[in-house]
Amino acid sequence: MATQAAFAVRFPQLARPSRGHGQGQPARVGVAVRGGRAAARGVRCRAGGLIEPDGGRLVELVAPEEGGRRAALRREAAALPHRVRLGRVDTEWLHVLSEGWASPLRGFMRETEFLQALHFNAVRGADGTLVNMSVPIVLALDDAQRRAIQADGATAVALVDAHDRPVAVLSDIEIYKHNKEERIARTWGTTARGLPYVEEAITNAGDWLIGGDLEVIEPIKYNDGLDQYRLSPSQLREEFARRNADAVFAFQLRNPVHNGHALLMTDTRRRLLEMGYKNPVLLLHPLGGFTKADDVPLSVRMKQHEKVLEEGVLNPESTVVAIFPSPMHYAGPTEVQWHAKARINAGANFYIVGRDPAGMGHPTEKRDLYDADHGKKVLSMAPGLERLNILPFKVAAYDTKHNKMNFFDPSRKEDFLFISGTKMRSLAKNRESPPDGFMCPGGWKVLVEYYDSLAPPEGSSKLREAVAA
Amino acid sequence: MATQAAFAVRFPQLARPSRGHGQGQPARVGVAVRGGRAAARGVRCRAGGLIEPDGGRLVELVAPEEGGRRAALRREAAALPHRVRLGRVDTEWLHVLSEGWASPLRGFMRETEFLQALHFNAVRGADGTLVNMSVPIVLALDDAQRRAIQADGATAVALVDAHDRPVAVLSDIEIYKHNKEERIARTWGTTARGLPYVEEAITNAGDWLIGGDLEVIEPIKYNDGLDQYRLSPSQLREEFARRNADAVFAFQLRNPVHNGHALLMTDTRRRLLEMGYKNPVLLLHPLGGFTKADDVPLSVRMKQHEKVLEEGVLNPESTVVAIFPSPMHYAGPTEVQWHAKARINAGANFYIVGRDPAGMGHPTEKRDLYDADHGKKVLSMAPGLERLNILPFKVAAYDTKHNKMNFFDPSRKEDFLFISGTKMRSLAKNRESPPDGFMCPGGWKVLVEYYDSLAPPEGSSKLREAVAA
Questions:
Q1: Which domains can be identified in chain A, with CATH numbers?
Q2: Could you give the ipTM of this predicted complex?
C-alpha cells in the first residue's frame, strides 16, 4: 500500500551551499536556478532571503482590510445578477488561490491554463518561463447557469457560500467546456470509477468551467478550532524570516504522524546542518482539505501533531506546524508536483518526497494505482521545479533489533517490520499495541480515541488500559 | 467530424523576417528562439540555414555504409542470445528513430523519457532545455522475454523482423513496467475501447517496455514502390538547401488531398512571400505509417499527390512531396505536437495546423474525441516548440457561388458547402460527382478507383463514365 511506516533519506542531487552567507541569507545549492533574483517582490513578503515565489511575486487575492475595499467588494458582489455557489472543495480551492499557494494563478483557470495543466503539468508565465502547475484548479458550472450568464453577456459573477453569502467576485470571466473524461484520464492516468476526488468534485459537477480573475472579500476561515494553524504562504514566509531560516524543508503528510516521520525530519535537519546551513527549519505541513473517507480526519491528525511537539519528538524551535489548505486528489506523480510547487510559494526550497506520494490503491484492481517510484522520478524532472531541491527517501521500517524506527538496512532486512497505514489502523481498531517506539504515546492515544469514536471497543484491551492510564 | 473540406489561413503570431538575409540564410521571425545557434551541427546536415534540429544535432542511427560497420553490426546482432521481434508499428517507430525524426532520442525510450513524455509532453535534454516529445516511442516485451533477459543479465538485444532477420541492436538496455492503462489515459485522454492505435499496438503487447540505444543495420525499406518518397530528415534538409529555401512550411495529411488543401498551401506561400521570404518551400508530407482501417491507404493517397503535381494544382518547383514514416495515434492535441516536432527535425520552421488535428470520433460516444480547437491551442503553447511558427487556419468550404474551394466567409455562409472526409467517401462510393473544382480530376479518379476496388459499383454512374473517359 501507499503508506509505509518509515523511511531513509538520500540526497542524490545536493551540493554544499556557497560559503560566507550570513544568517537569513539564501543558501544556493547545486541546482539550476531559473527566473533570476531570489528576493521576493511580493509586497507582503518580507522574507527577502527565501526562495522566490513562482512567477516572482506571491499572488494574494484577498481584498485589503484597509481602504474600504472589502465593503466595496461586498456591495459589488451583492449587486451582481449571477451567483455561483461554491461546494466544499471549491471553497478549499478558493482558499488556496486567495493566499497565493498557486502563484502566479490569479483565479480559477481559464482554458489556456487548464489545457497547459492537463498536457504539460506547467503553465507559461507572461515572460514565457514555465511554472509548474500539475492539477487543474477549476470551477464547474451547469448548463443552465452557463446559458444565463452568456445570454446576459455578463463579464463577472459573484461566488457565494452554502448560505448564499458572497465570498468573492470572479471577473473577466471565460466559460469553456468541462470534458470530464479527458480531465480525469489526463490527471489520474485512469478513468476507473471510485477515485475519491472525482466522486466528490467532478462526477456531479457541471459540464462547463468558468475561469477568471478572483478577488476574495475576506480571509477564508473554517471556525473549527484549527484556523490558527492555517498560515498563508505570506505568514509562513514571515515566520521563516523571523526565525532566520537559511533553508526551509517541507514535509507533506495526510496520514497520522509517527516516529519514522520524525526520524526522517530530524535526520534531514542534521544533514542540512552538515551541508553548511546554519538554521534549517522544518515546515511540517499536513494537508487540510478534502481527504477520502477512510483517511484519518484533520482534527485528529492535528492533535497528534501537537503531541509530537509537546513530547519533544520534534524540536519546536526548528519546526513550524501549519495546515496546507488544498484538497487531496490522490493523483500520485501528477499531484506530488502540486504539493511541492505550493510549498515553494510558502518559502520552502527543500521538499521531502517518499514512496508512492499521493498514491492509493487502484479503485477497481488489486494493485497500487501508481508505481511507487514514479512520484519522485516525475517530481525530479518536472518543468518549473528546477529551483526546488528534491529530497527522496527510501522506504524503511521498525527496527526490531533496536526497538525503534530506523532507516532500512538491506543487509539485515529480517530485523525490520513494515507498518503500513492500513496495519496501523487495524492495530488501533483491535486495541493492539504498536511496537514500542513506533509512535509517541500521546500521538497513539489520540489515534486510539479516534477509532474508539468510530466503533466502540470490543473485548479487553491492554493497550487501551495503557493509554487510558 | 475531424476532416473538413477546406480551410482559411490566419497568421496571428507572425512577424516579418529580418531584412538583408541572402538566399539560403535563415529568416528569423518574431518567435522566441531557444537553444542557441541556428546552424545544424549534424555531420550530415549541409542545410546550414535551416532551423536547427531538436537537441542541436540530427540523430541518425543507421550504421554508416562505409567502414564495414554494417557487416560488423550484423554479426554482433546474430551473436546476441536475446531477440525481440518487431511488429509492423514497432518497425515504423524503428524507422522514425533511425532517421532522427525524434531527435534527440537515441533509441526506444527508457523510463525517464517515457514518464516525461506522458506527464510533460517534453523531455529534458542533457543541457536541461526542454525538447517536445508528446507520444511515447516504446518497445514492448512480454514477461517470459523480460525474465530471460534479466536472468542472463544481458545488456543488449537484437531486434529482428517477422522473418527473424536482425535489423538492429538495442544496447545499454533498461526494462520497466508497461502500465497500459496509464499510458493510454495520459496519451489519449480516454480509456474507451476501440482506439485504433491501442488495438493495433498496445492491447496485445507485453506488460514490459525495453528502452536503450539503437543502432540500425541498414536503412529501412518497404519495397512497396513508394520508397523513393521516403526521404529522411537529412535528405529533406539537403533538398531544401538545394532549392535555396529560406522558409519551409510543412503540411501533415493523412486524408485524400483536395483543392481546399491546395488553396491553403498556395495561399500560405503567397503570404510568406508577402512577409519578405524569397523562396518558401512546401513540405507536403502525408503520413505513411499505421492508419485506421477506414482511412484511405497510403498507396492511393500517394497516387493522388502525384496527380496534384502533374495537373499543376501545386507548383512542383516550390513543393517537396515526401512520406512521413510515423504511425498514427489519433491522439489529437497530444499527437499534433509530435507531428510538428518531427517536421522541425526535417527542417520545417512553419507548421500548418487545421481544425481537430489528429482527431477522430470518440470510439464509444456520439461526439468527437477532442474539442476541435484544442489541437492548435495546445500546439501553440507546447514546451519545446517555441521555435516553430504555428500557422492555424479556420475551417472553410466549397464556395457554391464561385464553384471552387474558398476560404470560408461568415458574411455569406449560405454559399458554402462542407464536404467532410466521410461525405467524400460516400460520394465516391455512390458514384456521385463532387462539386466542380473540389478535387482535381486525376485525384478524384484515383479515389473512385480505390472505392471500386473495395466494392464493385452498383447501378449506373455518370461520374464513373466521366472519370473513365
A1: 69-216 (3.10.400.10), 227-454 (3.40.50.620)
A2: 0.88
